[in-house]
Design goal:
Layout (H helix, E strand, L loop, with lengths): L3 H12 L9 E4 L7 E5 L8 E7 L14 H9 L3 E5 L22 H20 L3 E11 L1 H9 L21 E5 L5 H7 L5 H5 L3 H8 L14 E6 L7 H13 L5 E5 L13 H14 L1
Parallel strand pairs: 3-4, 3-5, 5-6, 6-7, 7-8
Antiparallel strand pairs: 1-2, 2-4
């Protein structure tokens, strides 16, 4: 039997071993300090590059911000993409008693921010990243950020009356979700990220009503090309979550690509030192180009 704990620790250490890469320029999409987008120009000098919009993970908890995703973002920029690394409000400003794990997400602020960032993105990119082709946008996100990417692509199928609902599908080439928390019911069953899904929605009493506005597995079909990249040995967000999402999509009449990577866990898809990261870049390229 492989030592899963040792492998997980080594993968996480590798992913977090790279120094943060500063952006070429940053722009605010709101007044809160977390309402900011960092832009990275394509490193090969392209003047009309597809724009990849990246949403970081971290179980929607405040200690995990966009900086840990910057090596991955820089990897994409070195592959010829223009990249927007989005920050959003997470967790709570009030720590729990006893130093326990921070609360996951804020309702509705986490979703307010992702919606506002995506709505502001075309104008901000035109002003601050002229190399970006805003006619070729691909969303990507890791873990909790994968959930947000899938959600952002599904805003046109949100329930009527939702403040985030769009009247038409967002202008995207597609979504590449990396180990996403894509099916809330299965994630709750498996206790993903220490109950983060239930916390994101404001607790058990609010779960049922709010899940209809946030769970990617019920916001289907979207009509937008979607691929999930998942490590089969992921213990943080098990591949059963991705499979449940793909099954929900199939029942809704939509085919979702599911790329299961053998022998890897949660972090290699965003680790520039891992082969899985190159697989992710290729999946993005298939949609973007």
């Amino acid at each position: 039997m492989p030592d899963h704990a040792a492998r997980d620790a080594a993968e996480e250490a590798s992913a977090f071993s790279h120094p943060a890469v500063p952006p070429d320029v940053s722009a605010a999409y709101g007044d809160h300090p977390d309402q900011v987008i960092d832009f990275y120009a394509p490193r090969d000098g392209r003047t009309r590059a597809p724009l990849v919009v990246a949403l970081h993970g971290g179980a929607w908890r405040a200690p995990y911000d966009r900086r840990h995703l910057t090596p991955f973002v820089d990897f994409l920029a070195r592959r010829g993409f223009a990249v927007a690394n989005v920050e959003y409000r997470r967790g709570s400003d009030i720590p729990r008693q006893g130093g326990a794990t921070p609360v996951a997400g804020r309702w509705p602020e986490t979703f307010d921010d992702v919606a506002a960032a995506l709505d502001a993105l075309p104008d901000l990119a035109a002003a601050h990243l002229p190399q970006a082709d805003i006619g070729r946008i691909v969303l990507t996100g890791h873990s909790a950020g994968g959930q947000l990417a899938l959600w952002a692509a599904a805003r046109h199928v949100l329930p009527a009356g939702s403040p985030w609902r769009l009247p038409a599908p967002p202008p995207l080439r597609g979504v590449v979700a990396l180990a996403p928390i894509a099916h809330f019911g299965r994630s709750v069953e498996l206790g993903v990220c220490g109950g983060a899904v239930t916390e994101l929605l404001g607790g058990p009493s609010a779960y049922g009503e709010r899940a209809a506005h946030a769970d990617p597995s019920v916001l289907l079909p979207t009509g937008i090309a979607t691929t999930v990249v998942q490590g089969r040995e992921d213990t943080d967000v098990p591949y059963a979550v991705a499979e449940a999402y793909a099954e929900a999509a199939a029942k809704a009449g939509e085919e979702v690509g599911l790329t299961l990577l053998e022998g890897i866990g949660h972090f290699p898809p965003i680790d520039p030192a891992a082969d899985a990261c190159a697989v992710v870049a290729e999946e993005i390229a298939q949609l973007a180009w």
